[in-house]
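4.2 Preliminary Data

To establish feasibility before requesting continued support, the project team ran the inverse folding procedure on a target of 185 residues. The structure was first converted into the token representation described in Section 3, and no sequence information of any kind was made available to the design step. The complete token record follows.
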């Protein structure tokens, strides 16, 4: 006789997808506030039309999956994260330009930049951000997700939320690709 085993938590993949959405949204908020500070007015940030900057979501996943093991060694975490996240930023910039003939950021006027895609200042920022993220931001988010989402909402509803967010993101990505191909920035 088969036992009916109920799922009590999101799968690891579903949890990572949820983290991707959370950190993509927080990245969009950060970018938007930074732009308001720099430009003095609201401006749309990021590739997608919705309030998400996927590069931050992917960066968070890189940190969580591959670099979290360096949590106890801040110097190693800083150095490896600065290099890995800058390489990732360079590749994404190169890819976006190749696909859409547009620049979403330009560090040409920054000191010690590489083809305007990355700069030493932001390499340093990514290293510091990784330490803050691994030691403070992610533990805070994880604690509140555990307290408010994972314990109060049934796992099937959580799973449905992740699936709905995923579908919205796919539709937004396809729409954004079509529009950016026809009307580059």
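Position-by-position output of the design step:
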């Amino acid at each position: 006789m088969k036992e009916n085993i109920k799922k009590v938590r999101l799968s690891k993949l579903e949890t990572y997808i949820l983290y991707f959405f959370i950190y993509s949204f927080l990245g969009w908020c950060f970018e938007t506030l930074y732009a308001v500070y720099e430009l003095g007015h609201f401006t749309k940030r990021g590739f997608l039309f919705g309030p998400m900057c996927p590069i931050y979501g992917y960066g968070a996943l890189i940190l969580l999956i591959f670099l979290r093991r360096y949590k106890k060694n801040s110097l190693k975490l800083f150095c490896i994260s600065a290099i890995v996240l800058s390489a990732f930023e360079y590749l994404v910039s190169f890819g976006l330009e190749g696909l859409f003939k547009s620049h979403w950021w330009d560090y040409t006027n920054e000191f010690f930049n590489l083809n305007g895609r990355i700069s030493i200042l932001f390499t340093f920022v990514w290293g510091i951000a990784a330490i803050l993220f691994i030691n403070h931001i992610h533990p805070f988010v994880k604690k509140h997700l555990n307290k408010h989402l994972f314990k109060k909402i049934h796992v099937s509803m959580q799973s449905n939320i992740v699936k709905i967010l995923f579908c919205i993101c796919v539709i937004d990505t396809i729409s954004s690709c079509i529009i950016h191909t026809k009307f580059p920035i």
